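The following block was generated as part of the benchmark described in Methods. Ligand: S-adenosylmethionine.
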Amino acid sequence: MIPILDERIQQYLEDLEAKRDPIAIEMEKLAEDLDFPIVGPQLGSLLYILTRSMRAKRVLELGSGFGYSALFFAHAVGPSGRVVLTDTDRSNRARAQEFLSRARLEDRIEFRVGDALELLTSLKGAFDIVFNDIDKEEYPFVPDAAAKLLRPDGLLITDNTLWGGRVADPAQLDEATQGVRRYNELLAADTRYTTVLLPLRDGVSVSLLNGPVG
Ligand SMILES: C[S@@+](CC[C@H](N)C(=O)[O-])C[C@H]1O[C@@H](n2cnc3c(N)ncnc32)[C@H](O)[C@@H]1O
């Protein structure tokens, strides 16, 4: 593994993490107890800021788990917004619905159980944001599918794009690492999008679906 940030910098960032609602903290505790991967508070804040700053109202999540990242989106889209959650694991739906109801955000969410890549083809756009956090070997299928659903100047945001630093280690040839590597290369070459890969936590890509300028 190649460390993404010096551990002193990582600690410094964690010490500065924003105050957040008690439900978020409860979900972080559950993730720790279950050893379940969630975006964490730093990326959660970035999702919130991006959503609010573009006044996004329609967000599609690919891989929602029990709804932690969706909590940030649901707060940010406001009362007239909508967040579509997807996950293959049915048991995540009940947990997500419980947490988001307790946060009084149930009216803003819709949870679809199934393969996000299959659901993508049945959904109608346009979405302001597609958030990608599914199994890493499936990442290369996402840019095309997302481009069909996003509005011009919409964002495709993807977690784990540095994948514990393994993407930068040529000896790492497992399917997940290859999937993330391929994904990063596809986006770098894709002229439909303008992409930046931020070394925040496990790496996050923000890709703008280029609309007309002016
Ligand atoms: C990293 S977790 C998501 C965490 C969530 N985004 C958060 O930060 O709170 C990945 C989730 O994606 C789901 N998943 C993986 N591949 C999927 C697919 N093809 N379609 C739908 N869900 C998928 C898994 O069941 C798991 O719950």
